[in-house]
Structures are given as structure tokens and as C-alpha cells.
Amino acid sequence: QITLVDMDVKPHMVHKSVKFVDIPGEVEVVAITRNGKTFMPNSATVFQTGDLVHLFVAAGSKNKASQAFGN
Q: For residues 30, 61, 25 and 49, what is the CA-based torsion angle, rounded to 10 degrees?
């Protein structure tokens, strides 16, 4: 089972790439909303201030996603 989770980028995440958050089979960044536009990132995409990150999170892995984003 997976859940779609939205998280705001915190200051410590700015300038880090999507690959910093992705955990194969557990947490995957599927889209980013930036300046009102949503796009599908690749592993080299860098988070910016104000980004809203859309993640697929496997059951039991929400804490890992929350820790990465400081939530």
C-alpha cells in the first residue's frame, strides 16, 4: 500500500537534489509544485524555497519521509 503525501521544502532541503529523499521501494518524489506549476522531477532536480513536494510513501515509511523533510 502506498500513500500520496505532500510536504513543504524546509530551509535545510533547499539546494539538495531529489535523490537525497528517494528511498527505493519506500519513498519516491513523484512531482514538485513550484511557482504554481507542477512538474515531474528527475534525480538531479534540486529543491528550491517554496517548493511543495509530492511523494509516494510506502506503508510504514512515512516517518522516513517526515525525517528527511524535518516534519
A: 30
As given in the structure block, the three cell numbers for residue 33 are 509544485
Q: Are 57 and 5 spatial neighbours (Cβ–Cβ below 8 Å)? A: yes
pTM of the model: 0.90
What is the Cα–Cα distance from 35 to 2, expressed in whole angstroms?
27
For the chain, the maximum distance between any two Cα atoms, rounded to a whole number of angstroms, is 31
pLDDT tens for residues 2-57?
Answer: 999 999 999 999 999 999 888 899 999 999 999 999 999 998 999 999 999 999 99
